[in-house]
Amino acid sequence: MTVTDAVVQRGGIVRSGELRRLGFSDRALRTAVEAGDLLRPRRGWVAVPSSDPALRAAATAGVVLTCVTQAQRLGLWVLHADAAHVAAPAHSGSVRVSDPRTVLHWAEPIVPRAPDALVDPIENVLALAASCLPFEEALAIWESALERGVVQLPALHRLPFRGRARAVLTQATPFAGSGLESFIPPRLTWLRVSIVPQAWIAGHRVDFLIGDRLVLQIDGGTHVGAQREADNAHDAELMLLGYHVIRVGYAQVVHRWHVVQDAIARAVAQGLHLAER
């Protein structure tokens, strides 16, 4: 096995010390770098040219990818990700972040970071998202992680989350079908009406059942074509069964929530959420 093969097997970027422990000499490393087979993002690190640019940038800067940046890399639901979010050890003097838009987190991690890590453990990602983002956006990331099985609620409750992270944890559930759905329960608690996420009605799940008979459906980007036809058919079936359906889209939830909230409040005022007596 060549030194380049060893780097590829370890994700394309690795500390030089790890390669020395595997038996590769400094001369073998220099030869690979001089031949262009390996790059040196920073002293003590080597990478293959095809390695992840974000990981090379993290190694160069002496940071780990975290918060919304790492959440997005994990495929979690993120509302906004305009700048890179990274973390560094407190009082670190070796951080070199060149982009002024980069958000640098210095908070003490919940889970200790390995010295050769370039990405934060998911628990640290969640804790920093809670402290960095508006409550609803952080909750959406937490619930996305729970829904995908990246983390489990019992394990999260055993960790020493504090402040805003603890507040997010108290409301997080694994039942949100999308990030937008995480926004709904906190926004409607003032109604003092039961809100059941992912309720099973007429052979399908609905996003929310409010009270006994009011259904709230949240459309994402996939609700087009055949999916839209299936949704319309299910809406008709729900109405024939005596349910009342309010269906809204991404822009309404994110940018025109007051309109959605008004429609739900008026429906509740009319008793449309109540079962027929």
> How many domain regions?
3
**What helical percentage do the residues reach?**
40-55%
Strand content: 5-15%
Major sheet description: 4 strands, mixed
Helix vs. strand class: alpha/beta
Query: Largest sheet, order of strands side by side?
Result: 6-7-8-9
Shape, please? elongated
The helix/strand order is HEHHEHEHEEHHHHHEEEHEHH
The number of helical segments is 13
Q: What is the average per-residue confidence, as pLDDT, rounded to a whole number?
A: 89
List segments where confidence is low: pLDDT < 50 over at least 5 consecutive residues.
none
Radius of gyration: 24 Å
How many E-type strands?
9
N- and C-termini, Cα separation = 76 Å
GO molecular function, one term: endonuclease activity
Keywords: Endonuclease, Hydrolase, Nuclease
InterPro entries: AbiEi_N (IPR025159), DUF559 (IPR007569)
Protein name: Very-short-patch-repair endonuclease
Any key phrases for this structure?
4-stranded mixed sheet; 3 domains; elongated; 3-stranded mixed sheet; Endonuclease, Chain A; 13 helices; 9 strands; alpha/beta; 277 residues
